[in-house]
């Protein structure tokens, strides 16, 4: 359903810092795929998500969504059908607005009318039901400013906001990395639950190999702007963390340093 066709991207063209990250990158995501993405720092994981979301323009190639060429669509237009959650919990929500207002914004995403229309009685009930799903008691805090919530609570809210209007594709960029281990597990559990219940197609970057193996139906490894490993359901299931590190060392030829830098 999403196709990256021969995409090339060079940063800082014609300067001393010129750097080609992608050269004819090809990648196809099937509808309903939940793909975990691993790879070393600077491998191009976030950049691949950025080129899907339109945060970085590409030099060459095409991006097709459901066979529609979205290559020229600006980021804000793609945001109507792409959900994103970042590593930084402060990125997905607006701190000076309360939970209800944040949810209204997300709910009205892509609609022509503004914030106030979203906050009526019927919607409040709907938002409370949605918050209830998170099991964090946030439904009793709808008038609390989001800036006062913990990182985990904000990340759960970001996740809810990114998926409330079911996106065509959900992009998760190390969205549990800034959280303590228990909260990270909880957010991962919620992510899996939401992705499965809503049949969302998702790409999730993680440095946590256990997470990468445990969740999703497909696993890709990136290195120097290339997809160097693409494991489908059956092969992924039989993978262990040690296998994956070995793959990484073989493919990337990095020796011991690689896994220490890379993987939790
Ligand atoms: N806007 C940009 N301008 C210049 N270089 C960039 C830009 N965005 C990314 N890069 C470069 O592209 C390479 C890949 O970066 P990217 O952020 O995609 O890596 P990553 O795989 O997400 O790494 P990490 O695990 O550290 O998050 C890096 O060398 C980075 O410096
Ligand atoms: Mg990154």
Protein architecture, described:
The chain is an alpha/beta fold and 264 residues long. Helix 6 packs parallel to helix 7. It is built from 11 helices and 10 strands. The strands form 2 sheets. Strands 6-7-8-3-9-10 form a 6-stranded mixed sheet, sandwiched between helices. It has a 4-stranded antiparallel sheet with strand order 2-1-4-5, with no helix packed on it. The chain has helices at 45-53, 75-78, 99-107, 115-118, 121-134, 151-163, 181-197, 209-214, 233-237, 241-252, 256-262, and strands spanning 2-11, 19-29, 34-39, 60-65, 68-69, 82-85, 169-173, 201-205, 218-223, 226-231. It has one domain (2-262): Rossmann fold. It is globular. Bound molecules: adenosine-5'-triphosphate and magnesium ion. Magnesium ion (MG) binds next to helix 1.
Compile the SSE list and pairings.
Elements: E1 2-11, E2 19-29, E3 34-39, H1 45-53, E4 60-65, E5 68-69, H2 75-78, E6 82-85, H3 99-107, H4 115-118, H5 121-134, H6 151-163, E7 169-173, H7 181-197, E8 201-205, H8 209-214, E9 218-223, E10 226-231, H9 233-237, H10 241-252, H11 256-262
Parallel strand pairs: 3-8, 3-9, 6-7, 7-8
Antiparallel strand pairs: 1-2, 1-4, 4-5, 9-10
Helix pairs in contact: 3-6, 6-7
The protein binds adenosine-5'-triphosphate and magnesium ion.
The site of magnesium ion (MG) has 3 residues, from helix 1.
What compounds sit in this structure?
A: adenosine-5'-triphosphate, magnesium ion
Let me know the average pLDDT. Answer: 90
SS-based class: alpha/beta
Per CATH, the architecture is 3-Layer(aba) Sandwich
Spans with pLDDT under 50 lasting ≥5 residues?
A: 256-261
- Widest sheet: strand order? 6-7-8-3-9-10
Sheet with the most strands, sense and barrel status: 6 strands, mixed
Strand content of the residues, in percent? 15-25%
Tell me the overall shape. globular
Fraction of helical residues: 25-40%
């Amino acid at each position: 359903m999403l196709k990256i066709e021969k995409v090339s991207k060079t940063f800082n063209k014609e300067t001393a810092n010129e750097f080609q990250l992608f050269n004819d990158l090809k990648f196809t995501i099937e509808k309903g795929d939940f793909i975990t993405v691993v790879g070393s720092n600077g491998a191009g994981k976030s950049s691949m998500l950025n080129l899907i979301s339109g945060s970085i323009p590409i030099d060459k190639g095409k991006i097709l969504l459901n066979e529609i060429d979205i290559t020229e669509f600006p980021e804000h237009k793609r945001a109507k059908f792409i959900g994103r959650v970042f590593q930084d919990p402060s990125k997905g929500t607006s701190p000076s607005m309360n939970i209800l207002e944040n949810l209204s914004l997300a709910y009205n995403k892509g609609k022509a009318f503004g914030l106030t229309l979203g906050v009526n009685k019927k919607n409040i009930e709907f938002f409370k039901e949605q918050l209830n799903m998170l099991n964090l008691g946030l439904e009793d805090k709808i008038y609390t400013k989001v800036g006062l919530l913990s990182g985990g609570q904000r990340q759960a809210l970001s996740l809810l906001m990114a998926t409330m209007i079911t996106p065509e594709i959900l992009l998760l960029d190390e969205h549990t990395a800034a959280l303590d281990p228990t909260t990270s597990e909880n957010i991962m559990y919620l992510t899996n639950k939401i992705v499965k219940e809503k049949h969302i197609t998702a790409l999730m970057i993680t440095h946590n190999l256990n997470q990468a193996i445990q969740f999703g139906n497909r696993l890709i490894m990136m290195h120097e702007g290339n997809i160097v490993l693409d494991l489908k359901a059956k092969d992924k299931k039989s993978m262990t963390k040690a296998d994956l590190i070995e793959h990484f060392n073989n493919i990337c030829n990095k020796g011991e340093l690689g896994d220490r830098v890379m993987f939790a």
